Amino acid sequence: MGAQKKGATARVSEDPEELTRHPLQAILLADSFTTKFRPITLERPKVLLPLANIPMINYTLAWLESAGVEEVFVFCCAHSKQVIDYLESSEWSSQPNFSVTTIESHNSISAGDALRLIYERNVIHGDFVLISGDTVSNMSLTQALQEHKDRRKKDANAIMTMVVKQSKSSPITQQSRLGTDELFMAINPVTKQLLYYEDKAEYSKGFISLDKTLIADNPSVILHNDKQDCYIDICSQEVLSLFTDNFDYQHLRRHFVKGLLVDDIMGYKIFTHEIQSSYAARIDNFRSYDTISKDIIQRWTYPFVPDVLSGSSAIKVERQGTYRASDVTLSRCAQLGSFTFIGQGTKIGNGTKISHSVIGERCTIGSNVTIEGSYIWNNVTIEDGCELRNAIVCDGVILKSGAVLQPGVILSFKVVVGQQFVVPAYSKVSLLQQPTQQDSDEELEYADSTSGTGELRSDQLNGDIAPDLSETASELGTGGVGYIWTVFEGAYDEEWRHSVAPIPTDKLVKLMLDKDEDEELLTQDGNVISASGELKTDSDGNGSEDDDNEDSRDDYVSFEKEVEATFLRAVHENVKVDLAVLEVNALRLSYNMASVDCGGAIFYSMMKLAVESPHNSASELHRNAADIVTTWQKLLKSFLHDIDEEIEVILKFEEMCLESAKEFAALFPQILHLLYDKEILQEDAILRWADEKEGADESDKVFLKRSEKFIQWLREAEEEEEEDE
Amino acid sequence: MDFQVVVLAGGNSKSLTPLVSKDVPKPLLPVANHPVLYYVLRQLEQSNLKDLIVVVEGEDAGLLVGAWISGTFVDRLHVETAAVPEDIGTAGALRAISHYLTAKDILVVSGDLVSDVSPGAVAATHRRHDAVVTATLCCVPISGSSESGSSGGKDKTKKPGRYNIIGLDPRKQFLLHIATGAEIEKDTRLQKHLLHAVGQMEIRSDLMDAHMYAFKRSVLQEVLDRKDTFQSLKQDVVPYLVRSQLKSEAVLSGIPQAEEDGNEKVSFPNNQVMVSQILANASTPSFHELYSMDPDGFAQTRKTHKCCAYIASSSIYCVRLNSIQAFMDINRDVTGEADHLLSDNVIGPSPKLGTKTTVGPHCMLGEGSEMGDKCQVKRSVIGRHCRIGSHVKVVNSVVMNHVTIGDGCIIQGSVICSNVQLQERVVLKDCQVGAGFVVTAGSEYKGESLARKEK
Fold first, then answer.
1. What number is the ipTM of this complex?
2. pTM of the full predicted structure?
3. B295 Cβ partners below 8 Å, 6+ apart?
């Protein structure tokens, strides 16, 4: 900023550019602030997980270096110690023109927090690349950067350039090959300005709704369903200050991008840069881990491939895309299939078949083992006759002989699977117990993943975990160690979508059928709208009215509950009637109810108490009711000021007899009489109720008929009175 | 070509009163001294589409139009004139003449279209894609900038420059979304499954539906039969077809039989894909085919139909005569920048001009009209057999046939219908004068609509 001011005062127009020429900086978020890689990430940060036997962050850093970035700020939060230790011991700490600085935080729970913290540090001085530490790319930044700068010169509001890539999501599952949800983006084809971004489009059902002003402002808009967000952003300094100004921005896309697109006061703009032939992808879930690993092995990410990146340790690339480190002990009759990577010091026994898999360093694999499409990290022992399909096996795992991993299994660090044990598909197994607190609120999950897990780890890993093991042994067969994490309802749907295993055919078939049905509905829906544009708004209006009714009904129900609780407390604690009246009145005000409602609710509570107190026969119930009414008549009376309120009580009683307390049905006339005797109900009220009911349906008159005698008697008494006068 | 053309010529249009009357129904409203219908028929003739049905609202109007057509296009076109009741909408009009329709495809053209879009090209596009409907789209006239005169453009800039919201596939061949009328002012809602199928959709608000559609007859008739609430082609039928293009079997179960009537009889679904692929002249199958196939790529499980778009190039002239403003614009343009629409001479053979009378460029004088001394005519059209006195100024106006204009009149931005008499020193600005009206001497009017009371 300061430099820019200097530039403005300088005389030559080219000067500002010269003066603002900072070394290109990058912010690398070494924390994804999600829980998708659990349970593995409970013990090791995601950026250090091996991707084709090299920690992910190396791919990102190597790319940043090659793309001309000179200064990288690595923001670490969860397991920050591990990240910092790793970076210090790695070659990255000693590169001549490439400085890697770590920024540590212990309380950031989102990317937003991270950027706010970086803003406070005041280390970013110009345009920067914002990237997370799990991104693999080989794109050239030059053009994108130049476009960004040119746009900035013309329009100071163009503060961000997002890198996107062509990638059509599957027509059936609606997810990309990286396992991410489908993304809808509207882009102006001429300016490449991003106008609309929706990556969680479920809620709008079968429609994408574009704002009318968006179309009014842009004569041509291209709505893309075939682009993938690479999560590589070229940002101007303002981005950081925007995060600080909008302290509620957490998620880069969901809050920041959408926030900017919606906000038209500041007029900030986001643009896109589409890459054509180069590679860029982010490891967001297990499926993308699988996809990107395969891409790396198939060398789409060249020059960022294992044999180039690892440098000194000699890895040879052989035919059919097989990578083999120098000192692999391979039995003669072991079969290595195509696109397989065998790490250093690994021993493989007789008759073992391995294909489309990555095996880490110093693993011991017995004989007659089958490994397909799996990722086996370092120091893993796999005994004879095991079968692994589409699994991820972390460091130090032991598979006892004959163990079987079904597709989609994740075995976290040091898990032991017992002999002949079959780990069911999509299981996640860890030595650590599943955190019990699973909040649907994502913000809390963030917090959990950062602060909570650190403690958990030190306690449980350093300490002795043996005590728990005896009981869990059974979970993973004899001699097995580890907990199988349960999958929550609803989350199950996510499992197969994001798993390393390919999506099973039956799922696909089911999805196809579902989709057809959905569309059936959609087309019908569409017809409704078509008939006339106004029709839709009408139905909308009705909908909201319904909602209102629903709300008030809900209110009444909870009010009734509150009153009941108050009443019960009054009964059990012998609260004085005056105080109870006060309390009920307070409730009435806070729920904004009429006093009519109070009478009904109190009477309801009384009768409910009568029903709930022990009784053997109808007469006992009658006595109960009589007792309660006698004790609390003053309370009830104080809410029955006029006849309408008394009628309300009768109606309430009728309703109870029909629904919640059917036992009273037989006693209806008696109770009515009781209430009359206690002077809670006046005869006018009862007679008026009877008159009102006269015109009702036969079914509504059940209680009227039952109490006919009583009403008859009332009427006669009244007439007599009149005669007397 | 197995194409039938239906020209929906309309009848009495309320938006055009007082220009339109019982004697001059809308199709016969003269534009640069030719009835507006002439322009459409001439385009059709040039595309060699000669089998026409002209649909006119109202019996009387039908007779008038029929008489004019048989007089003008005798031996050149094979025209049937059908009169339908008024106010039944465009879809209703087609329903009423449904029994006339026999050809495989139907081209429906609005009779008030003044354009040089080639109907033949639209028909060819329709055939090439084997589409169910092909809509002609043209660029929205850019208000202000392209007009030479500033006066005409002024009102236009106030109008919203948007008529339709159109969704197109990346190759701009298929119509994926169309919003008309009130929908334009709302948020655009796009069907997701269509987006899934097509990948990306271009949404244009700078295109206009030109009211020239090619329909597959069987489908059109079926839709008209089934959806008897559909009133308008533009607002109901076309959007409906576009919306249901990936789900057509729900309502269009009759198509398979209908397709067999055509010349391509194909027994294998695979062949069908092949054939339409060749027809589509494309190396990759269109998203319709991809969508309709199972993941294994063989059986066609879903029935789809194609909605195509023919986008006229931006240089093409295309305006509908549906308002007085449009009438003025068309008159100016046809005599001016779009004069290729008329083959005739701009100035009639024998106008008699007085001394010191100047007729500027972009003007038209009908035959037999006479003008007095020291008159000025700029950017105006003057019909046949008009008598114009001396010291008359006519600017940006349209004067129809047999109009008498007294000395010293000043006429600006106005329309003077046939047989009107303007007495001396009348000043008219932005007025419309209905047929046979007499404006008394010395009166001044501004922005008014003058007409005889209908008996």
1. 0.76
2. 0.69
3. A171, A172, A508, A512
